[in-house]
Amino acid sequence: MELTEEQRAAVEAGPGPVIVLAGAGTGKTTVIVERARWLLERFGEGGPRDGEPTMGGVRAADGSVGPLLPENILVLTYNVRATDELVARFERRLGTDVAGRIRIQNFHAFGYAIMTEAAADAGYGERPRVLDDVGQRLLLRDLRPTLDLVYYRGGADPYHALGDFAAFINRARDELVTPDDFDHHVDAREAEFAARFGPLGAAVESIVARGDLARLKEVRRALAGGNGETEAHREARRAYFGDGLARWRSDVPAEARLAVEAEAERFLRDATAFEILRLRELGLVYRAYLEALAARKSFDFGEQIGRAIAVLEALPNIRRRYQQRFRHVLVDEFQDANIAQIRLLELVGLAPDRPANVLVVGDDDQSIYRFRGASYAAFRQFQESFEAVARRAGHAEGVPTLSLTVNRRSSPQVLLVAGRLIAHNETRFAPDKGLRPDRPDGRPVELGICRDDGDEADLVLERLQRAWAEDARPGKRWRDYAVLYRKHRARQQIVERLRRAEIPHVVAGGTGLWAHPEIRDIEAALRVLAEPDDDVSLVRLMSAGPWRFGASEIVRLTRMAYARGEDLLSTAREVLHRGELEVEVREPPAGDEDGHRERPGTMRSWLELVDAGSASGAAEPPPAAMTGGRGGRGERQAREERLRRRSEALDAALRARLTRLLEVIDTLTPSVHRDGPFTVLDEYLQRTSRLYDLLAVGTSEAQRDVLAVARLLRFAARWQRDQPEGTLAAFLHYLDVYQEVGGEPEGEAGTGLELDGVRLMTIHQAKGLEFHAVFVPQLVERMMPDLQGEQAILPVELLRQRAPEDFSLQEERRLAYVAMTRARDLLVLTTVEGGGARPSRFVGEVTEDHGPELAIDESRVAELRWGAEAGTPGPAATEEAALGAGPEEPAPPADATAELVRRLPLPTAQERRFALRRRAVELIGALEAVDPAEPFAAAERSRLADELVTVAREASREADEARMRGLHPLTLRVVAADSPSGARLLELAPLPDGFSYSSFRTYRECPFRFALERIYRIPVRETKPYFTFGTIAHEVFQRFVEERRAAHASGEAEPGMERLRELFAVSWTPEQFADPVVAESYRTRGAPMLEAFYGRELEREAEVIATEYWFDLPLDPGDGSAPVVVSGAIDRVDRLADGSVEIVDYKTGRPRGQAEVDADEQLTIYALAARDVIVDPATGRRLGRPARLALYFTEADARVSTTRSDEQLDACRGELLALARRIRGGDFAATPGPDVCRRCDYRPICPSRHEDGVRP
To answer: What is the per-residue burial (b if ≥16 Cβ within 10 Å, else e) of 112-125?
Structure first.
């Protein structure tokens, strides 16, 4: 893409600090990438360099000595997603080799890198542990009992105020406020209090003794908002009258006014003391938290930047190292930087002997992260920090500011409306900044005014469907349409409309793993295994697959358990053992032999009350006796007076379900206290065939379920790895805490941006994205803008910058501006007028003096407005008419149905088809599981077959309906498209970012195994022992060779055999092996292997160039698609005596013959990487095609060498690209066979497994 003149000026800016103010859609990321490319071309190797010779080389125009290398450029941005996008852009423009040498990180990752690289100098551990948000709150929870808190006591709730503590600590870090700084501030506040009211301690004792903390908290909050005296007087009046009412000041009798004034002063004093106490306790928590982190040798996420700053400030040698390394610093999304990040930028960018070559790019109109600590005025802070060096670089007016104003994204209409809105912000960095469109006129921006939220959702759906029908772009996708909202609740009715219309849609972030129905079912199973008397979890487990007890069956069992006063599982065992089920028969009430009327309190009467009183909410929930659960003796006796019980023979269906359920529970119970949670979970999934069934179903919905279960498996596997002695009960306790503090395991696809479907996301999540069409709903007051105001987390006196008075409103306006400028062609705004809602003030601002660029649709509220103008009857007249009217006319059927759907969402046709297909697979599995020896086997098989026939008939009807509606029928053709081996899997979960030799080998053996391992990412129960042994050997050899190489370079004594044994002993941990006998066997095999390796090292004369050399090899498919990136790590690269290169790969397995080594694909890929991308660290040039390749079989002490020609390397490239095309095309069909399936870890869950390959 051709650069604009503005972009070119920014890309080719001279030395020194520069601000690039880049409006929405003006190509700010392009400037970052092109700036790096231009710098390397201008000042890199082979490029022209201005300046005069110096003793150190050539003094370049950028103020540095010597050629500029990619390693000399640092690119920083705000978060992980932005980093990934930047890396991808750099790789496309500069190639993976050059891009991989440029340091591209977010601020936190860069801070962590400084800490780890300077660990020895700063006294940190080699790789300090970093707590995430959940870990931070778990640590705070553990600290609570050790602290003497009053304001934040929280009673028995262990999670009370953890969010407040975390927010305070994080904001203090962002503002570089230490515990000492904070304590000094609180000391000053306490001294002011003592001067006015007396000692603080006495006031606190009085507060605690009286116990009226709730009222004081109200006054304290008002005090923080500047309205403390008014609130104190209100509470004083409320206390005087004693009836909870505040009354007016004039209501206070004259003789009591002095007393009320005194009471108000007391409230004010105590509230002030309470505020100081709150601050003192926050300081106490802050200090204790940092001490706990230090004791654990850990850091939290926010501390990474603070610790990096501390290292650079305290250690000039480390600071100088980074200043010399990074001659150019480029910062993207600078408007989101906070005070700490700006300080880190100063320490790295302000070098004493060259210009501060720091270029920051951003848009203050898109600064929307103040709630995360972003600076109020990052650009002004940058100007102040870099003004002096800018003047020394020749910029008399300070830091130069360049503007990008040509918008290539949005239509002129979108820019005009959005610009009209943002112009109302008064404290902009460049008030006269405007955007100029680079596109021809488009369609007007649309504003729809709706009656209520449901009407608004209908409008969004209608307009979305019309836009899709009118969209003539080739290759249009639903993912090009987005609904952006301020708060999550704005999406609820829109999601329901999309679901019913069967329009594909993706909610960014989803509903969370723990809310996924399949995961809730599995979690219930784990809880039942850990706590057999957990009736609530057992009821959910019964209703889940594969048994799926009927509702009436569950109710009868729970009522029987309730009547007997025992847990549900014990009752189920008793029922199965006796072969009888006790059922209840209700005796008719006195005076009603027919028994048609039921007493109040029964389920039927409760439902009637709900029907009659739902509008007023008068109906009470049903009593516990109506819904199951254990009752006391008195309750049971009362029930027995109304009910009599009789025994019925257990029918075959219920017997079969109970048998299978209890078999699974009893089989797994012994492992609950012996094995970790992942082991128990994996065994449960195999015993119930849950993953097998879902994979056999093969629809997209089933694939989503499998992906969710895989996430849970990985979560449990990580916990078990970190807690090798942990039990299932301990895991569930951790899970309770994890869910309580909002923990969410890593997902498959981040915000779901890889999937096709209408995007629904918050405006914050949409930052940096763009769409063909954007819908912005709920432009109403109290929703957008949400003027609750920024919470005063830190006292304003400690903030480095003071916010403008109307900052909250300005930030909300920026949010709306960001939402609007995401649109390329169509922007639809909607608001609600009526029912207590009124349009946002932003609606008024965008409609000011509007022209044809804005089309307003008021037709949906015109009737309401006309009725009001014509004179709508008042409340009294309406009430009178209602009293005089007859019975209310029932709503027309169509209206009644619509109202029912609103209140009770019905399953869509797609969801019904999925349920039918899943049930069919479960029934087939149940038929296979019936034991012919059981006495009920014949009856159960007959029942299951009958149900399967019923499901088949229903599926046929669904398929016919689907065909008529143009939807996918439930046929084998669709199954093939939706199957786990079909292309649609890639619409739900992305391919890995790159490939490796092992991934290609797995795909060759079985494409479906590749899908399970690399796309579904289902973890296996245990690592093969030979993999573990090989990993240990590689690590030991690498460390020994590196130490020997370093000693040789420094002239020190080289490490010997004893050091090699020591490294092996350090790396060896028997716990890495599942079996201690196997572990000992491998340990004894280590000694001769080490001796052989050491002997070879002494004899070897080659120079070691690199060990564990990581490479990324891009292969161009030649069809315009993205490069296929093959990654790997070469064990060892040696330079031979003649200057040629040899690549060595260690193998701990069986030795191979010459023919196998000559054909080894892994060595071929290594040679291809060496020829095409790997750079010699000593010369900076490509290694070239290796002269020799070798496999060293460590246990056999055998070395087999080979070579590769350029023709062989090119042929390998073609084979890899052919495999990658198949993978990218979604060809994951299984290739079962006895040998392949016998070696496969996924054989228990594979629907296509070869039965000869499954061990009995």
So the answer is: bebbeebeeebebe
Q: Is 503 in the same domain as 519?
A: no
Q: Helix, strand or coil for residue 775?
A: strand
351 in the same domain as 273: no
pLDDT, tens digit (0-9, with 9 covering 90-100), for 387-440: 988 888 788 888 999 999 999 999 999 999 999 999 999 888 888 888 999 999
If asked whether residues 1193 and 1225 sit together in one domain, one would say: yes
Tell me the C-alpha distance between 996 and 1165, whole Å.
9
Whether the Cβ atoms of residue 1190 and residue 1200 lie closer than 8 Å to each other? yes
For the chain, the first-to-last Cα distance in angstroms comes to 62
Same domain, 159 and 249: yes
Is residue 760, in this structure, part of any structural domain at all? yes
**Placement of tokens 């299932």 in the chain:** 728
230 part of a folded domain: yes
DSSP structure string for 494-511? HHHHHHHTT--EEETTTT
Which uninterrupted H or E stretch holds 1127? strand 1124-1135
Cα–Cα dist 629/557, whole Å: 10
Spatial separation of the C-alpha atoms in residues 1129 and 1165, rounded to whole Å? 11
- Using alpha carbons, select from 910, 875, 1111 the residue that is nearest to residue 997: 1111
Please indicate, yes or no, whether the overall pTM of this predicted structure exceeds 0.90: no
Q: What is the CATH classification number for the domain harbouring 362?
A: 3.40.50.300
- In DSSP notation, 621-649 reads PPPHHHH-----HHHHHHHHHHEEEEEEE
Residues 343-397: tens digit of each pLDDT? 999 999 998 888 899 999 999 999 888 666 555 578 988 999 999 888 887 888 8
Give per-residue pLDDT as tens, 1057-1083: 999 998 888 888 776 776 777 778 888
Domain count, the chain: 6
φ, ψ at 1129 (rounded to 5°): -130, 120
CA–CA gap between residue 304 and residue 308 (Å, rounded): 6
Residue 471: band (very low, low, confident or very high) from pLDDT cuts 50, 70, 90: very high
